[in-house]
Amino acid sequence: MASSSSSRTWTYRVFASFHGPDVRKSFLSHFRKQFISNGITMFDDQKIVRSQTIAPSLTQGIRESRISIVILSKNYASSTWCLDELLEILKCREDIGQIVMTVFYGVDPSDVRKQTGEFGTVFNKTCARRTKEERRNWSQALNDVGNIAGEHFLNWDNEAEMIEKIARDVSEKLNATPSSDFDGMVGMEAHLKEIELLLDVDYDGVKVVGIFGPAGIGKTTIARALHSLIFNKFQLTCFVENLSGSYSIGLDEYGLKLRLQEHLLSKILKLDGMRISHLGAVKERLFDMKVLIVLDDVNDVKQLEALANDTTWFGPGSRVIVTTENKEILQRHGIDNTYHVGFPSDEKAIEILCRYAFKQSSPRRGFKYLAKNVTWLCGNLPLGLRVVGSSLHGKNEDEWVSVIRRLETIIDRDIEEVLRVGYESLHENEQSLFLHIAVFFNNKDVDLVKAMLADDNLDIAHGLKIMVNKSLIYVSTNGEIRMHKLLQQVGKQAINRQEPWKRLILTNAQEICHVLENDKGTGVVSGISFDTSGISEVILSNRALRRMCNLRFLSVYKTRHDGNDIMHIPDDMKFPPRLRLLHWEAYPSKSLPLGFCLENLVELNMKDSQLEKLWEGTQLLRNLKKMDLSRSVHLKELPDLSNATNLERLELGDCMALVELPTSIGNLHKLENLVMSNCISLEVIPTHINLASLEHITMTGCSRLKTFPDFSTNIERLLLRGTSVEDVPASISHWSRLSDFCIKDNGSLKSLTHFPERVELLTLSYTDIETIPDCIKGFHGLKSLDVAGCRKLTSLPELPMSLGLLVALDCESLEIVTYPLNTPSARLNFTNCFKLDEESRRLIIQRCATQFLDGFSCLPGRVMPNEFNHRTTGNSLTIRLSSSVSFKFKACVVISPNQQHHPSEHTDIRCIVGSYNKVICVEHPSESTRIRTEHLCIFHGSVSEVSSSEALFEFCIDDSNPFDNFKILECGVRILTNEPERSSKTVSRGLKSHAKIFKTSLRKRKQKKMIGYLLKDPRKFGLPRDRIIELHDSEDNNNDHIVSYIEGKKKPIDCWSWFFICFDLSKIVRNIGKLVLGKETTDCIDRGALHEYSIRKE
Fold it and tell me: InterPro entries, per this entry (predicted)?
């Protein structure tokens, strides 16, 4: 297992391995210039004298670089220096987790892997005077590096753009390196070691691990450190925080689960404001992705049912980590892999205290007894030790004694009372800041909080810094304030202890009812947090808020869905003019009160309201940053927002009566997020908006929307699902930051003339498009293409190598998939594509069965492909192995729907080999017709543990599905390891040996005689009946040429290529070998027979 790179200090960010004469004065010089401008330091080898052996300084440069980039040019393999560099780079990849990237500069990746073509000629020349071991090591290294997906120079029209993309990719990888924030934390290493054993990240199956222990023990900190340590081993990751307190407001169980899944998918897919319509969405989106998900502070098994109900929801190798105080929740959900975080030993507890009190691991002189005493009084609880230790930092012995006396008065070591020491160590202004964060602003953006609390009497930045230093809060990497729930409780208890007439913040529901109904508010009150759960009816006085002239934060909400929503608001009620936060869910009036002064408002949150309009005329809105009117189903219009020049986020999801956006939206030059999902009446969006700040737009479900304007050239995500948009603006081709473009479920879309060239996720499913432009092959960042249900689509053009997912199910007119299919790890779904021609079917099957590095394919078919040499009817087969070692394999199953077919949204095919367990999930979106007849499902597997010389392969339709919808008719397997054809080296050697046989015989002028035998009875030699072959004499004495008419295509090719391109080599070689060389020699060849080959169009 590679050692962690999180604790390493890297001298260089990038090491480049290259052949100087090929690239130094051209490509590499531009490469270095771009990296320098991006602030990326590279190792400079120009002062190193080249020799036969790799220089020690070069080896050191490789080992001290975070990323190695291998630039493979046509003469790269001419240098033993380069080849030895490559060996060292791959060793660092294995040993220290170094990131390796590739650039194929004028060479084909296949030639690098197999050492063929001009690249292979150069390599063979280099190896001519080297040892067999050196050649073997170099060949394996080239095979390995050739399998690392990278940039292919020949696929780019513009070298500068390719270099820019490489620089962006490098920056992203550098920014995503594991954090060292948790290095040196007391006891952390032991915790991580134990949990890593439970996680077993090298295991291909899906695992769920639970971490449990009391509040304040450090579960969340451990989970964060773990996430930071291993996140770069996964395709997608997310950390879902504070599940116990954030998602139950005003929702029934089904609504809660939907909201939880929306939140999870929004975080892990980075799709802000995502909306889903059913509870199968998590599985639909993540079933084939290797994900790491941390579910923090779970307090209800329903949360686990919503977010991780079954391991089949996630792709192979995925890990889910759950933290909770309640072990029973883990047991009820069937989580057996659990880790208990216990109290630290006395020695470790003292060390934790000292880290915060003295900034060292042991007590200062004269404080040893005091430190022991404080540690005992804190009950060895890490959170208490951190908070109390921080409050004692810099204090003298007398002050320590005073704190100890205060702790000694606490009965039963109540931890919340212990934590009060930290709160009480704050000055008055910081205490006020602490209380406001505890009640209103936990998990909120720090800049938003600063705007909310801006006041001449408070230095917010200084107050936040003090609280961070005292371990009362911390600021997350994405800029949000985090406060532990126990400290929140300390704040709420502090409020309750205040005299009623002195309280700054009101939180008791009964007290708030009394104040609002009887006009008992005072000018002291700055905030009201009103949970109306359990309150049957509230009748507000028209003067309820007038006396609270300093009220700045008003939050009205429900934490329980109890059906009691009766609240009466008088028409002439006035909101205080200093109000900065107005958060009122299910606001019962049709508009806000007349005369409402909004000048100081920072956030307006009126979700689920009865509002039809907000206000008349123009308001001063210079401080407004966030506006959320989601699910205000009666809202018909938005007010003039001309003055909301600082608005950053506008949410209008499910405002079903909203018809148009005001032209004033064009003045929102700081707007970053615009969410308008399911605005089913929306028809008009102003033209010429062009907001440079706008990054994310969601218009999913706006079914009446036919056009949309040039919003911004900086948009990163544009979601237009379920609209009636007929075309996109031409300028979209120049939206250089647009990575996610979805325009599915749109029968009005007949063609897409303009494409965003930098797109990564392109979704065009269930539209009426007929063609995909050929230019898509130049979209070198494209990772996912979804054209499912495009029933008029007849062909797919050449696709870029970067593609990882192609969904083309229910494309009932699709006939042609264009060669080459250069997608080395793609997942291909061609379910119900019944019109695919034979050439396309052959191409898909061969690429998946012999050349794909990973991924899977599903396509119509009932005949097991020849590539699977181990096969049987039914769902299991046993294969004898040459030795009991790990191996990789390709598998194919023929599945057939049962007659009593029940609709489901996915088909799960499970493959079991001993302890190895892999699930392939073939998705059927709700719009699809499901699998209608026999299909082939081809996929890849890797078995790391084999206990005997035989392997039993079992295939089944996963029984987690409520209906047994399919049966397996036949299964086939092809072992990749332990067979002669496993590596490209072996394939190459096999081809060479066969070629040598042909050359030997043909050199004796037997060519025409052999061709004559083939023409006379081609079936004897395993040739297809439908091939017509003509032989023509050539003026060239060295070669005869053949013109082959294959599937109507006339193509002159030489004699050798004819054999190697068109037919099953192993069968031809055996039969011709018997004819030319005799049976005995042929049998020798058969023992090393070639089973794997590829057909490559010239």
Answer: AAA+_ATPase, Apaf_helical, Disease_R_plants, Leu-rich_rpt_3, LRR_dom_sf, NB-ARC, P-loop_NTPase, RPS4B/Roq1-like_LRR
In a domain, 831, yes or no: no
pLDDT at position 371 over 70: yes
Could you tell me what percentage of the chain is helix, strand and coil, using 3-state DSSP and rounding each to the nearest 5?
35, 20, 45
Domain that holds residue 117: 12-175
Total count of domains within the chain: 5
Same domain for 378 and 334: no
Q: Which position has the token pair 């023409």?
A: 1015
For residue 91, tell me if it sits in a domain.
Answer: yes
Exposure string over 852-890, b if 16+ CB within 10 A, otherwise e: beebbbbbbbeebbebbebbeeebebebebeeeeebbbb
Say if residue 244 is in the same domain as residue 134: no
Residue 321 belongs to domain with CATH number:
3.40.50.300
Q: How does pLDDT run across 697-736, given as a tens digit for each residue?
A: 888 999 998 888 777 888 888 888 899 988 888 888 888 8
- Tokens coding 109: 């990746």
Q: Is residue 564 part of a domain?
A: no
Coil, helix or strand at residue 225: helix
1049 DSSP β-pair partners: 1046
Let me know whether 309 and 326 are in one domain.
yes
3-state secondary structure of 754: coil
Please indicate, yes or no, whether residues 169 and 214 belong to a single structural domain of this protein: no
Asked if residues 113 and 150 have their Cβ atoms less than 8 Å apart, the reply is no
CATH of the domain at 936: 2.60.120.1620
Return the minimum-mean-pLDDT range out of 20-29, 548-557, 872-881, 966-975: 20-29
Beta bridge partners of 583: 555, 605
- Tell me, yes or no, if 85 is annotated catalytic: yes
- 64, 85, 517, 970: the active-site residue: 85
- Regarding whether 944 and 910 lie in a shared domain, the answer is yes
Q: What stretch of H or E contains 329?
A: helix 327-332
As a whole number of Å, the CA-based R_g of the chain is 34
- Specify whether the backbone of 547 is left (phi greater than 0), alpha (psi in -120 to 50) or beta: alpha
Question: Is the confidence at residue 1093, as pLDDT, over 50?
Answer: no
Q: Residue 562 has which token pair? A: 């109890």
- 74 & 44 share domain: yes
**Residue 559, pLDDT above cutoff 60:** yes
* CA separation for the pair 85, 70 (Å, rounded): 9
Same-domain pairing of 194 and 67 = no
Strand pairing partners for 892?
A: 938, 972
